[in-house]
Every structure is written in structure tokens, then in C-alpha cells.
Design brief:
CATH superfamily: Dynein light chain 2a, cytoplasmic
Number of strands: 5
CATH architecture: 2-Layer Sandwich
Order of helices and strands: HEEHEEEHH
Structural class: alpha+beta
CATH class: Alpha Beta
Shape: elongated
Radius of gyration: 20 Å
Distance between the termini: 47 Å
Strand order of the largest sheet: 2-1-5-4-3
Length: 126
Amino acid sequence: MDVAQALADLTEVSAQIEAAVVTSPDGDVVAATAPDGAAAALARAASGLLREAGERAIGVEARTGETSVFAVRDGAHVVAAVADSGAASGLVLYDLRACLRRLAEEPEKPRHKRTTRAKQKADEPA
């Protein structure tokens, strides 16, 4: 799946999310709904949260008075988001994991019509 489309789908489904970012496992921003500086800051925050949570953690949340930061990961991507501190944690984490699953999907391959030999012979000029 296209990363930008996955983020667009995420923000459409989860109205609680104010900004989101997809990074590579090493923290490089792949796509974001926020400007470059904010996206890089969110990527660093997510990386730090996941590092502190340990290698076995797949999802984390950190809350401040006004904001929550969420991050989930798999072997290929990290998806992080900022939401209002009143956001339903379980729902946001669920939506982030759904985004990860969509990113892991194989892109659809174009389908080619198969032409049988009988069809080819019928189409040949006599």
C-alpha cells in the first residue's frame, strides 16, 4: 500500500488524531501529515518512546496535560500520532495498528487478460 494513502486513510478514520507520521525503523520520515519540522519531532518522540519501552513493545502512549503521543511498530515501519489528551487510547492504538497492517499488504498487481489459443485462432484472419 502507498504510505501517503495509508496515512490519509488513518486520519480519515481516526478523527482524534491531529498529526501522524510513518517512519522507517531507524527513524527516517517516510510520510507525514505534519510539516517537516513537526514530523521530525514526532518521529524522534516516537523512537524515544519505543526505545524506552523495550524491544518487545509494539505500541506505546505517553500523555502530558494537553497531548498524547502514540507509537506502534512492526519490522518495517513505525507509525506515530499526536492526539488530544482526552483521546481514547485503545481506539487510537487500534487505528495505528490497522495502518501498520495496511502498509504490510502487498500492492495489487495489474491483472492481464489471458487469451486462449482458441480465442487467438478465432481472431486470426482467414
